[in-house]
Amino acid sequence: MVSKCANPSCAATFDHRQGRLFRFPKRPVEGGRPANTHCVQHFWLCGNCHRDYLLEYHDDIGVAITRRVERTPGPRKFISAA
Ligand SMILES: [Zn+2]
Predict the structure, then answer these.
(1) Which of 7, 10, 15, 80 is the most buried (most CB within 10 A)?
(2) How close is the Cα of 47 to the center of ligand 1, in Å?
(3) Which residues surround ligand 1, an ion (CB under 5 A)?
(4) Are residues 59 and 74 in contact, defined by beta-carbon separation less than 8 angstroms?
(5) What is the pLDDT of residue 21?
(6) What is the pTM of this model?
(7) Residue 43 backbone class (left: φ over 0; alpha: ψ -120 to 50; beta: rest)
């Protein structure tokens, strides 16, 4: 099913205890058989990569690995006392 991390630049081998498993529909082959349960692809990001990356499925393009947007909010700046 999945043998290694989906990040091409990472060589971590699959470990279900860490990281995250993604399921995406497989692009149907034109003129191919109708969709069935086998038309699902599995991708896995290891613990390290899951911290920094996300996998996104785009119709007609495929699966992309994208860097997570930094969501750490900065310190609040108070401009006026209560
Ligand atoms: Zn990885």
Answers:
(1) 7
(2) 7
(3) 5, 7, 10, 12, 46, 49
(4) no
(5) 96
(6) 0.70
(7) beta
